[in-house]
Amino acid sequence: MTKHDEARRAFLLGAAVGAGAVAGATLVSDALGQTHEATTTGTGPAPAHSRPGGRELGAFFNSEDAGTVTAFAERLIPGAPGKPGARDADVLNYIDLALSGAYADLQDFYRRGLTSLDAHCRKTYSEPFRRLSAAQQDEVIAALEQGKASEFSWPSAVAFFNTVRTHTMEGMFADPIYGGNKDFAGWRLVGFPGAQMEFTAADMESTEPFTRLPIAGLQGKAT
To answer: For residues 40-67, b (16+ Cβ closer than 10 Å) or e, as one string?
Structure first.
């Protein structure tokens, strides 16, 4: 992991913890204070077990768009040895399920945004985003965040960046029942204990990080 990756990772994890992103057994979806350019509906994505057609087919994304979103999310929260990233947490699955369910009204937002993203990348680097080097992908993401990426009209480059970043954070830290946070990767990363059956008096009084296993989520409690 480069120093650039470490800095981005530290910033996003700090934002998640500092904003109280992990609350109870679920993620506060607006923890970063981001807003969508379109209005979302529903209370959350469909549970992961409702995914139609099998994992390889996807619920909403085709293979090319899936590759783009996976690469984008991984550059936002890059993995490293012993430190899971967006790919490890299966953030793609979370976003894919969300867009086929509670966030279905953002489907056109994502289609247009991904098309504009690749148009900008082809104009600048002659390759789509998913085929760029990590350094080039970082340059593109920085241009989006600063509103300097070409080929965007609606959604704007900034709105697209903010939305994908918010959804990446949700997929990293939401309860695994929603399709992300695979194997509790995000919770383990920030030391969140999940839904425990009980906490002892010693647990409540301790000032040390909570590390006892197993971590339980809504999926386990629903069975």
So the answer is: beeebbbbbeebeeeeeebbbbeeebbb
Backbone angles phi, psi at 103, to 5 degrees: -105, 25
Rounded-to-10 torsion of CA 54, 74, 98, 89: 60
| Sequence-distant (≥ 6) Cβ neighbours of residue 178 within 8 angstroms | 44, 45, 46, 47, 48, 94, 97, 98, 170, 171
Q: For residue range 199-212, what is the model confidence (pLDDT) as tens digits?
A: 888 878 888 766 66
CA distance 71 to 87: 8
The set of residues, in sequence order, having a beta carbon less than 8 Å from that of 42 and lying 6+ positions away, is 101, 102, 103
Distance from C-alpha of 33 to C-alpha of 217, rounded to nearest angstrom = 25
With 0-12 / 13-18 / 19 or more C-beta atoms within 10 angstroms meaning exposed / middle / buried, residue 222 is: exposed
- Are 46 and 219 in contact by the 8 Å Cβ rule? The answer is no
pLDDT digits (tens, 9 = 90+) for 79-135: 988 889 999 999 999 999 999 999 999 999 999 999 999 999 999 999 999 999 999
